[in-house]
Amino acid sequence: MSHQLKKLGYEKNKCKLCGKYFWSIDERETCGDAPCDPYTFIGDPPTKKKYDLYGIQNTFIQFFKERGHEPIKRYPVLAKRWRDDVFLVGASIYNFQPWVTSGLVKPPANPLVVAQPSIRLNDIDNVGRTGRHLTCFTMGGHHAFNSPGNQIYWEDETIKYCHDFLEHIGINPKEATFIESWWEGGGNAGPCYEVCVRGVELATLVFIQYEILPDSRKKEIPLKIVDTGYGLERFAWISQGTPTAYDASFGPVIQRLKELASIEVDENILKENAQVAGMMDIQTYADLKTLRKRVADKLGIPVKELEASAKPMESIYAIADHTRCLAFMLADGVIPSNVKEGYLARLIIRRTIRLLDELKLKESLKDIMEIQIDFLEPQYPEIRKHHQHIIDIIELEEKRYKKTIQKGERIVKKTINHFKKEGKKEIPVKTLIRLYDSHGIPPEIVKEISNNQSFKLKIPDNFYTLVAQKHEKEEEAETTPVELDYPKTKLLFYEKPTETKFKAKIIGLHENGIILDQTLFYPEGGGQPSDQGILKIGKNKLKVEYAEKIGDIVLHRTNIDKLPRELIDKTAEGTIDWERRMALTRNHTATHLIVAAARQVLGDHIWQTGAQKGIKQSRIDLSHYKRITIDEIEKIEELANKYVMKNIPVETKWIERNLAEKKYGFILYQGGVVPGDKIRIVKIGEIDVQACGGTHVPQTGDIGPIKINRTERIQDGVERIEFSVGEAAIKQIQNINRLLIETSKVFKVPVEQLPRVSERFFKEWKSFKNEIKRLKEEIALLKIEKLKEKTQKIDNLLFIGEIVDAKMDEMQEMALKLTEDKKIDITILLNNDGKIVGASSQKAIKKGIKVNELIKELAKILGGGGGGRPNLAQGAGPKTHKINEVLEEAQRLIEAALEG
Fold this sequence. Notes:
single chain, 900 residues, alpha+beta, BirA Bifunctional Protein, domain 2, Elongation Factor Tu (Ef-tu), domain 3, 9-stranded mixed beta sheet, 6-stranded antiparallel β-barrel, nucleotide-binding
């Protein structure tokens, strides 16, 4: 890895401090990267021209375009649109994993250049503090995909491009070092160079040659990929020489935030803080304290004075970064929730709100998002398109956060009391994380409450990083894949979608399944259940209960546990259940129409997260940030039926994956990620297009009516729509109509008057219910007064033991009122059903009378059991004839306890 560098005048050296090998033109002893070399560009940029972020972004794209690279549009930051192993795009190479990097799919261009917004939350706590850490950054990537028959370029050209780009923007290559290193990410790996200037790493030049296997072994891949990552925020930073990358990248946003917060900035403190932070990795609270101390010592000021000056600006920097991150996440379809990528979005939202609270800004997060969106819109028109959607989500999340905080105090106090009872003096970190994870309570709120409760709490300085790391990747289910070594099954249902019968050769058996060389049976997939039917083999008929696809093989499961080997090589005549197939087919196409209609009505953030087609009813799960209203459901249903009535042709065709993505975008993957270099496209006019392997009707009119039956929120951020189509929809409408007619007969009013009459009856019922409750309470009070007349004294304790005509809940209320309001020390009440309740005052408990122990013993006489708290307990038993004996024993046990 040295030919081109030598040609350009670079020599190999070894860093005397870190021991890494690096290349430089001028002779030097250190590698050029912090902490071996300090930042020397702050206040003294190496370029004459100052680039803002958009300026350097456009310069980067144009530079590589002029050198034969095709610019491509940025990909969404939500990586799950085309892959199922990570949630968010962490680098531009993520755009091409795993399909392009595996060699299965052609790249969208070759070579190409892209300015890709990327999100990494592994250093979220450092954002704002160090001057260089970001949750959202723009990775400039130029990529070349080299295959054995198509060599584009490799190491020499990549190094030359980097060398020339530095010169192009005015950096003298003599100031650059190329550090030899190794890179791994997204399942791939390879050697790399880290390119540094004046202490800051600006780019990484990676030469991907390996795939990382599940057992961590490395397997060489046929495709050799040039994967470069130019940190465009850092290029803007070094060209301006500002104290931090934040000032250089989104200066207008920061300036506005400073005005709103009325912050006076000490440029010397920011400059020194960034320079010292550049020499450190801030990973723990101890690291942060060390950073503060070093900067304070260098400036000759107390640490408290430094914190008072630096912390507000750190919060402003983090807010500017976080709001940019949120703008991309929400515009690209992330819905805040308690799971997956939605959890990460909510984490950033709530952290940003906390930072705003600490600055005591009167503006809401919505107001700050408006400032950020105004800054982003000129460069990213897609953010302008989703402007209102972003604001709607932020407003809703702010309301939810306030509710969380209101509920949080009770939960935290309960947690603290639990630890106090166990004799602990501090809330452990894992509990702090659980309170945030399960209840959304930020650690800062926990600390405030803990201080008020005189309880210790230390918030880890990397708290949000720890939380984010738990949620950054999809948890992989441990499965043992089934491998069948047979030729690929020919899928006749694509070629002959209207056929019901076929002949095929039996080529294998697996468990209770038959493998054919070809089949009309649709195997379960994409939420569509499999076909069912019959396989006739000679004189035998086998029922196919289920067809499943294992790799490229279709396995026809039968009702016979073990199939005879003699079946192999015989001919089978298959017949599918056509009515079932058509019912499922109509439901599948209807699903596409409902998704399309929902996107029209609710917004194009709507994304399918799951589906299950059925015969009588189907369901579709959609990502949405709030409940779908009745009006919206009616609009979706009406629009879906209009699509049916228009009788739009449903086209299906196979297209190369990269061409399909280029033509239609990632909307193709509404139904989930589809494998393969060629994908089957289902296109319904101009209203919907998806990559889908399911069966579909030839035109929408074949579906029949669509009836949405109900909606429910199945999890945070996901709405489920249940619907019926065709004959099942008609039956559903008839059922609803019948219910309305029968209900109207009960009320003896016309159907149209049902809502008004039902409301009147409900109000009357509620009024009667409250009246009954009031009367019951009066009766209970009378019973209590009557019971009080039967008070006895045992020692100096007031005791009541009686059989009452009351249910368990009434008995509990009576016992509590007697002990709390009427000052009775011990109350034992029984009813004729064998239920028993006891209550005792604090005075009785201090004298050793705990009713939970007492009731436990008394319930044994009834042949049952009981328990509860020392002040209130209950029990029961079937031996109701012994209830008088229970009262006698109660008095004896109390007397014995007092004597003891």
